[in-house]
Amino acid sequence: MSPVGKVLYVVSRFPQISATFTAHEMAALTEAGVQVAVASVWRPAQGTIPHPVEQSFLPGLIHLRLSDPGLWFRVGRAILRRPLVLWLCLRLFVAHLNSIYAVAKALTTIPKGLALGEIAHQQRFDQIHAHFLTAPAAAAMLASAVSGIPYSVTIHAFDIFATEPRLRNSAVRLKCERATLNVVISDFNRRFMQERWKGIRGRFEVLYNGIDLNLFRNPTPARYSPGMPLRILSNGRLVFKKGFEYLIRAVAQLIAEGASVELRIIGEGPLMEPLRGLCAELGITQHVHLLGKLSQTQVVAEYQQTHLFVLACAVAPDGDMDGMPTVLLESLAMCIPSISTKVSGVPEIIRDGETGLCIPPHDVEALVRAIQNLRDEPEKAHRMAQAGRALIEQSFDRTRSAQRLLNLWQEMHP
User: Fold this and answer.
1) pLDDT by residue (tens digit) across 81-91?
2) Which domain holds residue 298?
3) What is the pTM of this model?
């Protein structure tokens, strides 16, 4: 094996508050002595505030912009050096003919991938690694073909679960089979891919997302005692697959039955106003607090003040669902009794009856019973929370995850 000392990460957007797991992985690799650079396929959303873990990667960030004349110069050089890459471009384009939206994505991603290959070649990277099997993997695949540098990809959730034709990833087989390594974030995802894309070739390895346990050292969550108001926390982008509607309805039912409950939800997104409207409709506005986006310090403070953490993951109409929600890793790291649903890889974190309670998705009644269960048996809830912390230390530490990824890369370098 030869050492992998310089890695180019390819992501959709950077910085991106909903994908800090990538930055944590890069930070752990940097701590292990690897030089990491980041290429962003698209511009970050306007007003995005970088997470602290993303800050150190901003100075060397590679922006891929079609308006940059230098990008087109690199595209020309790439084609002159590797003319056969045009055949791969054609295959990628044909794989995206399922919708106009997909065609537009391909037409913008292809030149960026070719230009990135020239950059990777000039800067002598040892490995190209993409996160998400969408535009980042397409760009990384083309960059690999141009530069001769091996590429790998981490596959998450939306990139394989979405079924709507406009969003369906039609080039999965091409991208996976050209990668030297396909990292999947759960055993569920590996089984899902083998069933949906039967006969797919390539190396697939399960590697859980890791978190920085230093941020959750000596957790001291609030302990619930009978008679006090129950504080419930949830955290995530305000979209359907996070299941906030079901959680709000469960809280409304608990309140209707006479319970004293306060629900606090961290996050922002397109469902902010609809969720406010739902709270008003149910008459529980004073019991539900939509906090918006918070800093890492503020999030930890919220964790310390809550009795239960609930993420009622759901399956969206387009097939999208969560893969391995980072907020569940954080809640377990903070020793908070946690509840979630049997969606994709979630039961690999929230092991029902062991590290928390894991219920069917879209089931308000089951959610009410689970909350009542942990509220009424605080000692059992505490034992589960302790087991959850032990699981995170054993299997979801970012340092261990990054070292395993580095070892996998080195195995592929003769």
Assistant:
1) 999 999 999 99
2) 213-395
3) 0.93
